[in-house]
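Practice problem 4.
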């Protein structure tokens, strides 16, 4: 905002190359200067808000709201069934969250390009990199916000189940004592699945300024890996558990069952590998995605 009609005022001295800086009368910034940490925090918060469509038109919130509501409804229905049957209907955390993983993929495919592709599309990177934001801090802030958003979306239905199971018990204090340790599988599953999905989403979306292309690439990669794993299992004779490690959705679904101590017919007939294999796989996918994002940011023209 200008205070008055600017009056061109020449500085006391011109630079060596003859150029002159004029005071155009714009109001100067007088607030605190928070430096690189403040710039990182601002970028992180802005990215997190973008993941949920906050501060943007209603259509930008459609996918986040849809995913959150649709993933919460089965958890709520399970709690109602368990309460109505006085606990006779067991709550199966791993089975429930495994069925929601495709919705989390939808969230990642729709929202991650909004965070990473828009800056390239609108030529904002040169402006960002002229401030206290370095290319590395930009990549870390963006990835941290993506991971945080996916973690919150993945944690919500599991936390609802956990708190609801305690709440519907005849004696909630006793139930909390018995179920206290179950919070760790809840946090572990949310963290590991968010890390893997964020890695795939960020590692792919950063390569194009076109959001539609990035969304298609993320969806296509998940579908392609699922098809390859199924093909190796059915046609090439590769063992089911080995092929499963190529499909992140199947791997995370099995990981959830192991973390919550659940099993199904397939796991009884063909025992999965130790939980450490799935933990290493998800950590590796997340680390690879972050490295790709950082590498791309170091080389992109800005």
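Answer key:
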């Amino acid at each position: 905002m200008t205070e008055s009609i600017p009056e061109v005022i020449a500085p006391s001295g011109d630079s060596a190359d003859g150029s002159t800086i004029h005071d155009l009368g714009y109001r100067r910034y007088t607030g605190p200067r928070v430096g690189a940490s403040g710039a990182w925090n601002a970028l992180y918060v802005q990215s997190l808000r973008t993941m949920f469509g906050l501060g943007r038109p209603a259509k930008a919130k459609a996918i986040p709201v849809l995913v959150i509501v649709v993933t919460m409804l089965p958890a709520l229905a399970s709690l109602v069934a368990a309460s109505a049957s006085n606990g006779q209907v067991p709550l199966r955390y791993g089975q429930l969250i495994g069925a929601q993983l495709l919705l989390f993929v939808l969230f990642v495919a729709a929202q991650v390009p909004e965070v990473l592709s828009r800056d390239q599309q609108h030529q904002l990177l040169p402006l960002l990199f002229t401030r206290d934001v370095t290319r590395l801090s930009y990549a870390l802030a963006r990835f941290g916000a993506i991971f945080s958003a996916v973690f919150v979306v993945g944690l919500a239905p599991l936390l609802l189940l956990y708190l609801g199971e305690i709440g519907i018990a005849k004696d909630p204090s006793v139930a909390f004592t018995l179920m206290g340790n179950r919070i760790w599988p809840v946090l572990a599953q949310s963290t590991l699945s968010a890390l893997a999905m964020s890695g795939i989403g960020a590692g792919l979306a950063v390569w194009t300024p076109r959001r539609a292309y990035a969304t298609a690439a993320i969806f296509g990669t998940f579908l392609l890996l699922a098809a390859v794993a199924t093909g190796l299992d059915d046609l090439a004779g590769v063992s089911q558990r080995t092929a499963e490690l190529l499909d992140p959705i199947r791997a995370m679904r099995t990981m959830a069952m192991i973390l919550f101590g659940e099993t199904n017919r397939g796991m009884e007939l063909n025992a999965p590998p130790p939980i450490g294999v799935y933990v290493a796989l998800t950590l590796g996918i997340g680390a690879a995605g972050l490295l790709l994002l950082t590498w791309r940011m170091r080389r992109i023209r800005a």
